[in-house]
């Protein structure tokens, strides 16, 4: 799934360190990247539910301020993601609470779903107000060993290269076996609204 907002990932990857020959300074984080998949960061509720006219839009909500907190000191990496939901409603009527479903999915290598959890976030509108807010959290555990690059791959990435070496001009991260190992050790925590097929199609079309 394509992600539209990534808030946590690797830092200083692929920086060249030429102090003692050409090499890669790899500071890749084991923590899962945190992101919102494309078309899942918003949800629109209609009243009546079967209508798709603009005049029938009841509530529009958006996930915002997705903030990661990661603990990678143990055998299991714990990634926590806080987020807010900001919503607007059509009518400034009495106080109202709307409950919206969301998902938290752990993806390995960009394609393999290894875990998925569903949750609910409540958005509260004060009396006479058209804007409401809510707050929720998503979390994931990832095996630290699976998120760690094998020693031989790390050596190939970080080994110093000097001018004249046969592979001096070769970016190790471009090698198929290195790319594959990096991909296998890469995890994401994806957070978004749990949309129906109709809601997803609406987000894609608008």
Structure commentary:
The protein is mainly β and 206 residues long. 13% of the residues lie in helices and 47% in strands. It is built from three helices and eleven strands; from the N terminus they run ββββββββββααβα. The strands form two sheets. A nine-stranded mixed β-sheet has the order 1-4-11-8-9-10-7-6-5. Strand 2 (15-16) and strand 3 (24-25) form a beta hairpin. The longest helix has 9 residues, at 176-184. The two termini are 19 Å apart. The relative contact order is 0.22. Mean pLDDT is 84; it is low at 8-26.
The tally of beta strands, per DSSP, is 11
Could you give the distance between the termini? Answer: 19 Å
Question: What string gives the helices and strands in order?
Answer: EEEEEEEEEEHHEH
Fraction of residues in helix: 10-25%
Mean pLDDT: 84
Count of individual helical segments? 3
Gyration radius from CA atoms, angstroms: 22 Å
| Strand portion | over 45%
Shape: elongated
Largest sheet: 9 strands, mixed
Low-confidence stretches: 8-26
Which structural class best describes the helix and strand composition? Answer: mainly beta
How would you write the strand order of the largest sheet? 1-4-11-8-9-10-7-6-5
């Amino acid at each position: 799934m394509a992600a539209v907002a990534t808030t946590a990932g690797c830092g200083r990857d692929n920086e060249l360190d030429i102090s003692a020959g050409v090499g890669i300074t790899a500071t890749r984080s084991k923590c899962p990247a945190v992101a919102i998949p494309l078309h899942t960061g918003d949800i629109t509720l209609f009243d009546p539910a079967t209508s798709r006219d603009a005049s029938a839009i009841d509530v529009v909500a958006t996930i915002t301020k997705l903030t990661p907190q990661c603990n990678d000191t143990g055998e299991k990496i714990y990634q926590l993601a806080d987020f807010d939901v900001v919503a607007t409603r059509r009518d400034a009527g009495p106080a109202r609470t709307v409950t919206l479903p969301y998902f938290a999915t752990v993806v390995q290598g960009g394609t393999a779903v290894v875990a998925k959890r569903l949750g609910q976030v409540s958005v509260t509108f004060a009396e006479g107000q058209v804007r409401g807010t809510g707050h929720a959290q998503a979390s994931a555990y990832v095996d630290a060993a699976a998120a760690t690059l094998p020693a031989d791959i790390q050596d190939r990435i970080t080994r110093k290269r000097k001018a004249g070496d046969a592979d001096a001009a070769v970016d190790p991260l471009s090698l198929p076996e290195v790319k594959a190992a990096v991909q296998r050790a890469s995890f994401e925590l994806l957070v978004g609204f749990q949309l129906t097929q109709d809601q997803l199609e609406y987000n894609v079309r608008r």
